[in-house]
């Protein structure tokens, strides 16, 4: 099963190391393959270095695309994490 | 072997004798070859990664125990890299697909990651390049069967010798390290500050001469003179040992009386406070007899984070110290960023002349959201003790007034939410810009206390950067011109009926204590280790002769002449 959503990063500091590690931690809780896509760049959401390499900052649009049994749940969880600024 | 003497930069005072232990940050040689059996290479890599995880976990735990969780957080990032599919996973895939040896693959992938991070626009991410380099190096050492240097194996009495030491290196020193010597670094380097906090002599900036020192060589380290003596004669060894013993006795005596007040022989009370840079330093300050905190630098909150610290994060740090000091004064300095202290996430523009630029109070007033978060955190912490707020780099009356109205705004917002804060909180300023000292009488009317920051005051007054080897000799806080500004500040404070203190390095200089007291200072704040001896020194001073000494010092022709007047052996 495939599922994807687009989010805009509201977080003041973007996907810095700490927010990035929260993304990786959340992604790691799901079976699905999860990709983060920013423009022409793509990264594995379960890789800290991958997420950091996107260098996604405030206002950037990010496509979260998952493939697997829990794809919908995974994407929704990540969207919520990024959008609600729970990341500090 | 003939005795040799090397001159470096005096970075932390004291005399020590001990044997060289080299802390080498080895770069293992990596060969590149093809393997017929990738399975065994994979196994080697997995074992090395597993060992690396165990080592880092151990480092993480010991660092957390000794320095707190914040200091240990760096190792969490290292552990995350070791779990990363884009890093370790990529290495495994490479071994399987290209049948290359594990070391070659590790080096290749690490280099890619370092380059990737270094190319990112964000400085914080760029700094992570060093972390991954560290992790990669650790794996390579393990693959090569080389055990990375483990500082916990340092025996008591070792002199640590290294090309360069980072604060996280010195944080891992076990108790008993005798001294440290490095090729690079200056008096203001963070490693030097750590050495002074730990109370061990340090000579930095020895340059290429450092390579002359071999493992196990006996050295005499003179942290005051900045010299390293190699292969000292038996006679020199005996002399050094007896001097060290004598100093130790004096220290022990001072430490025994550390908890007592410091009063001059004619009964004038001098308050001796501690400078701290993180909440973890509070205990050591108390143990050394600090009667308060004269300077709590809050930059650590901002520098160790990858985001603006929240009110809650700040309150946790401030109230920890306030509670530890019960009702003793705790002077917390608001954010002093800019100058040489950069904040990656603040996106500070590069300045041609950062020390004359947009820093400290100037930055805070221009960024009221950042400033108000800190002011609110301070107000909310104030219920836990005797909190004083100190503003850095003030040179205009308006800066104090603007801060006060921001404080009032914060008070109103807190009151609306029924959040408590202390009724009266002292607000004071650092005197570190010559302008502020010169018209301190005007500023004094608007504040509850003034504290002289001699490090910046000296560099601004003498127009000399002590980090610059060419002009470092011009930098000395004992210069009569600097002392005149101290005197002016004390007079202004006295007239306004407020407290004048000092929290720069000069305040911890026991040789200068007599002059400082003579100039009219009531409070001296220094690194915790210097407190017992300073108190003991104060007890030997008579305030009338101190005043005379101070008056003479103001008329001297140079800093050296001032120092000679109180210390003929200078």
UniProtKB/TrEMBL annotation, chain A:
Chain's role: General (non sugar-specific) component of the phosphoenolpyruvate-dependent sugar phosphotransferase system (sugar PTS). This major carbohydrate active-transport system catalyzes the phosphorylation of incoming sugar substrates concomitantly with their translocation across the cell membrane. The phosphoryl group from phosphoenolpyruvate (PEP) is transferred to the phosphoryl carrier protein HPr by enzyme I. Phospho-HPr then transfers it to the PTS EIIA domain.
UniProt-listed InterPro entries: HPr, HPr-like, HPr-like_sf, PTS_HPr_His_P_site
Keyword Transport: yes
Regions annotated as coiled coil: none
Gene Ontology cellular component terms for the protein in this record: cytoplasm
Main location: cytoplasm
Residues making up the signal peptide according to the UniProt record: none
GO terms under biological process: phosphoenolpyruvate-dependent sugar phosphotransferase system
Species for this entry: Marininema halotolerans
Protein name, per record: Phosphocarrier protein HPr
UniProtKB keywords: Cytoplasm, Phosphotransferase system, Sugar transport, Transport
PROSITE patterns recorded: PTS_HPR_DOM, PTS_HPR_HIS
Keyword match Transport: yes
Localization: Cytoplasm
Domain spans labelled HPr: 2-88
From TrEMBL, chain B:
Catalysed conversion reaction: L-histidyl-[protein] + phosphoenolpyruvate = N(pros)-phospho-L-histidyl-[protein] + pyruvate
Family under the similarity heading: Belongs to the PEP-utilizing enzyme family.
E.C. no: 2.7.3.9
Major site of localization recorded for this protein: cytoplasm
Alphabetized InterPro entries for the sequence: PEP-util_enz_mobile_dom (IPR008279), PEP-utilizing_PTS_enzyme (IPR050499), PEP_util_C (IPR000121), PEP_util_CS (IPR023151), Phosphohistidine_dom_sf (IPR036637), PTS_EI (IPR024692), PTS_EI-like (IPR006318), PTS_EIN (IPR008731)
Residues binding Mg(2+), per UniProt: 432, 456
Residues covered by the PEP-utilising enzyme mobile domain: 155-226
Organism: Marininema halotolerans
All residue ranges annotated as the PEP-utilising enzyme C-terminal domain in the record: 258-542
Domain (Phosphotransferase system enzyme I N-terminal): residue spans on this chain: 7-128
Gene Ontology molecular function: kinase activity; metal ion binding; phosphoenolpyruvate-protein phosphotransferase activity
GO BP: any one term: phosphoenolpyruvate-dependent sugar phosphotransferase system
Keywords: Cytoplasm, Kinase, Magnesium, Metal-binding, Phosphotransferase system, Sugar transport, Transferase, Transport
Cofactor(s) the record lists: Mg(2+)
Pfam families xrefs: PEP-utilisers_N (PF05524), PEP-utilizers (PF00391), PEP-utilizers_C (PF02896)
Protein name: Phosphoenolpyruvate-protein phosphotransferase
């Amino acid at each position: 099963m495939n599922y994807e959503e687009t989010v805009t990063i509201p977080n003041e500091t973007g996907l810095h190391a700490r927010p990035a590690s929260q993304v990786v931690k959340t992604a790691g809780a799901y079976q699905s393959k999860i990709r983060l896509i920013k423009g022409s760049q793509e990264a594995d959401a379960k890789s800290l270095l991958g997420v950091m390499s996107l260098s996604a900052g405030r206002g950037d649009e990010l496509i979260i695309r998952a493939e697997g049994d829990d794809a919908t749940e995974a994407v929704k969880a990540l969207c919520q994490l990024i959008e609600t600024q729970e990341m500090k | 072997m003939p005795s040799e003497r090397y001159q470096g930069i005096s970075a932390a005072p004291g005399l020590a004798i001990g044997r060289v232990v080299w802390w080498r940050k080895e770069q293992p040689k990596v060969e590149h070859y093809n393997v017929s059996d990738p399975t065994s290479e994979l196994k080697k890599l997995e074992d090395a990664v597993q060992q690396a995880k165990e080592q880092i976990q151990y480092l993480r735990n010991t660092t957390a125990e000794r320095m707190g969780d914040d200091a240990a957080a760096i190792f969490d990032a290292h552990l995350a890299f070791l779990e990363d599919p884009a890093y370790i996973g990529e290495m495994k895939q490479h071994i399987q697909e290209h049948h290359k040896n594990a070391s070659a693959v590790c080096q290749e992938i690490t280099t890619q990651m370092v380059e990737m991070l270094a190319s990112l626009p964000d400085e914080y991410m760029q700094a992570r390049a060093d972390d991954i380099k560290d992790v990669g190096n650790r794996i390579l050492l393990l693959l090569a069967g080389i055990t990375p240097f483990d500082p916990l194996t340092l025996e008591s009495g070792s002199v640590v010798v290294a090309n360069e030491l980072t604060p996280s290196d010195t944080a891992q020193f076990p108790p008993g390290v005798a001294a440290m010597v490095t090729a690079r670094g200056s008096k203001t380097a963070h490693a030097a500050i750590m050495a002074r906090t730990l109370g061990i002599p340090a000579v930095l900036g020895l340059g290429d001469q450092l390579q002359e020192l071999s493992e196990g060589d006996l050295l005499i380290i003179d942290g005051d003179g900045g010299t390293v003596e190699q292969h000292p004669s038996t006679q020199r060894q005996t002399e050094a040992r007896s001097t060290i013993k004598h100093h130790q006795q004096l220290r022990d005596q001072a430490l025994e009386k550390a908890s007592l007040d410091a009063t001059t022989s004619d009964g004038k009370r001098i308050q001796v406070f501690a400078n701290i840079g993180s909440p973890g330093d509070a205990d050591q300050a108390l143990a050394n007899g600090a009667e308060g905190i004269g300077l709590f630098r809050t930059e650590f909150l901002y520098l160790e984070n990858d985001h603006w610290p929240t009110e809650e994060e700040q309150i946790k740090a401030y109230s920890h110290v306030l509670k530890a000091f019960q009702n003793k004064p705790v002077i917390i300095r608001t954010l002093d960023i800019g100058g040489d202290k950069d904040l990656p996430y603040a996106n500070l523009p590069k300045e041609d002349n950062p020390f004359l630029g947009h820093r400290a109070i100037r930055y805070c007033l221009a960024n009221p959201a950042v400033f108000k978060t800190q002011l609110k955190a301070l107000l909310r912490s104030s219920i836990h003790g005797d909190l004083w707020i100190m503003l850095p780099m003030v040179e205009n009356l308006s800066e104090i007034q603007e801060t006060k109205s921001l404080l009032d705004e914060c008070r109103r917002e807190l009151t609306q939410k029924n959040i408590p804060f202390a009724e009266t909180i002292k607000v004071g300023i650092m005197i570190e810009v010559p302008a502020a000292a010169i018209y301190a009488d005007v500023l004094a009317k608007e504040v509850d206390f003034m504290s002289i920051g001699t490090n910046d005051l000296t560099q601004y007054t003498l127009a000399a950067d002590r980090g610059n080897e060419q002009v470092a000799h011009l930098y000395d806080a004992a210069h009569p011109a600097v002392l005149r500004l101290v005197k002016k500040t004390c007079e202004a404070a006295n007239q306004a009926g407020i407290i004048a203190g000092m929290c720069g390095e000069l305040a911890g200089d026991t040789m200068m204590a007599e002059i400082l007291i003579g100039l009219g200072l009531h409070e001296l704040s220094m690194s915790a280790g210097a407190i017992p001896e300073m108190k003991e020194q104060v007890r030997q001073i008579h305030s009338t002769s101190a005043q005379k000494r101070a008056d003479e010092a103001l008329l001297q022709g140079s800093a050296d002449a001032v120092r000679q007047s109180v210390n003929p052996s200078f």
